[in-house]
Please model this.
Amino acid sequence: MIDRVPAPGPPRRRARGVQRTALLGMVMGAALLLVAVIVQIIVVERGDRDAAPDRREAAASPAPPPGDLLARGLAFPVRGINLSSIADSFNDARGATRVHNAMDIMAPRGTPVVAVDAGTVERLGNGGAGGITVYQVDQAGRYGFYYAHLDRLAPGLAPGRVVRRGEVLGYVGTTGNAPRSAPHLHFAIYEIGEGRGRWGERPINPYPLWKQQAD
Ligand SMILES: [Zn+2]
Model:
């Protein structure tokens, strides 16, 4: 009777053990990757989701930029930054029910933030989701410009101050609920004034204003 030579036991067990360890490693790696992706999504979603000056819901589908605003040739609100490095995030979700209704302009902390148009500083804010903020109205009182997450204000800036187009209002920062690692200006335009609306009610997408200038 010929004995079938049994395959050596221990090496096979070792091989199986190595396979199992490799499989476990792959599964754990995939799980860690998934957690990292989810954390990143949460961090991005949380970023200034409540930065609008008003907590009421704003319209999800705003009108295209008004021609009179386009014709003004507004200054870009962050000095030294151009539109090519910016994404249009106006319609992005912020949390479950909110829409961004603004533009985020990433820039190094301390970069000057300038008035997009001539007008008057209506009020200043400090605290809440927007952090240090400037509310500026144009000369006609028709449009409101909102600048949020500022690191600090320009010296002497106060409500009632008349500003020129391009005048420094403050500096890019992360005050409010902006991630500390991602300094940026949250910039929004609202149609305001008699019979038109209040701050936060009638947002206008700023992005196409400079898109047309760039094209
Ligand atoms: Zn924003």
In short: Residues 50-214 form a domain with the Glucose Permease (Domain IIA) fold (CATH 2.70.70.10). Residues 48, 51, 100, 102, 104, 186 surround zinc ion (CB under 6 Å). The chain is about 25% helix and 25% strand. The CA atoms of residues 69 and 209 lie 8 Å apart.
